[in-house]
Amino acid sequence: MEEYQHITHGFEPVFDERSRVLVLGSFPSVLSRENRFYYGNPRNRFWRVVAEALGEAEPAPGDVEAKRGLLLRRGIALWDVVESCDVRGSADASIKNVVPADVARITGAAPISAVLCNGGTAARLYHRWLEPVTGMAAEALPSTSPANAAWSLGRLTERWSEALLAALE
Fold this sequence. Notes:
By secondary structure, this protein is α/β, with parallel strands linked by helices. The chain has helices at about 30-35, 45-55, 65-75, 105, 120-135, 155-169; strands at about 5-10, 20-25, 75-80, 80-85, 95-100, 115-120, 140.
């Protein structure tokens, strides 16, 4: 079994002054940390789900600038609940000794009106660490992780589309 390591997030949130919806993951995976951007595991369905949920003409964006552009163009901020923690590999279930992200960096600069969490771990961590700061309840969405095999791409896209479009109204 992998050893615990104390790891700092390592890259910045995506947002600007027009961001209205904040999407939060828990903490970057090993591949995301190596790629220095969100959802860097090619098997993670996040980028494909978000692009399809928003009705984008193009398939999932491929490079970091295209991914950042998609989010900002649509008023979506993206970050993780945890700034640093002890973790084994990419296992959300192993996260301990949490230092929460300074979510006020985003909520103080952008008119965030909805918070969506990518998976149950992100939602639990948000509720514990960040909801008292933002004063906003979060909607937990099914994880786009490849570990969430119970949700097909179609079901994920339908559920995420429903939540994103309602939040962006």
